[in-house]
Amino acid sequence: MTTLFLGALSGLQLTIFTVIYFLLLIYIIYSIFKREKGIDLVSWVLFVILAPIIGPILYLLKVSFSVKNISE
Predict the structure, then answer these.
(1) Residue (of 72, 58, 71) closest to 8 by Cα position
(2) What count of other Cβ atoms lies within 10 Å of the Cβ of residue 29?
(3) Are the beta carbons of 21 and 51 closer than 8 angstroms?
(4) What residues does each domain of the chain span?
(5) Are the beta carbons of 66 and 4 closer than 8 angstroms?
(6) In this structure, which long-range contacts are made by residues 2-8, counting pairs with CB atoms below 8 Å and at least 24 apart in sequence?
(7) Using CA atoms, how far apart are residues 20 and 51, in angstroms rounded to an integer?
(8) GO CC terms for this protein (predicted)?
(9) Could you give the C-alpha distances from 64 to 2, 8, 29, in angstroms and in order?
(10) Alpha-carbon distance 26 to 70, whole Å?
(11) What pLDDT digit, counting tens, does each position of 9-65 carry?
């Protein structure tokens, strides 16, 4: 199922996901400085730190699955 989802993403869809991601990232940073306190602030900070790492991991998974499908 993950292979089908990652393989189905085209360049335009990846661009749209990237734009949405950066808009959400800007909103999160705004929320951190304006409204969030306590554990909510900690969870948002962890998300901001981990989200840029998860994106490249998904991209590498997509590339590795597409290479395996071509070679078979």
Answers:
(1) 58
(2) 13
(3) yes
(4) 2-71
(5) no
(6) 2/61, 3/65, 3/69, 6/58, 6/61, 6/62, 6/65, 7/62, 7/65, 7/66, 7/69
(7) 13
(8) plasma membrane
(9) 12, 14, 32
(10) 37
(11) 666 777 777 788 788 878 777 776 777 667 777 777 777 778 778 878 888 878 777
- Written as six digits, the tokens of 9 are 């993403």
Please say whether the beta carbons of 66 and 3 come within 8 A. Answer: no
CA 13 to chain centre: 13
Buried b vs exposed e over 44-68: b needs ≥16 C-beta within 10 Å?
A: beeeeeeeeeeeeeeeeebeeeeee
**Structure tokens that stand for 41 in this block:** 């602030």
The CA-CA-CA angle for residues 11, 24, 14, to 5°, reads 5
DSSP label at residue 36? -
What is the token pair recorded at 36? 């969030």
Q: What is the pTM of this model?
A: 0.39
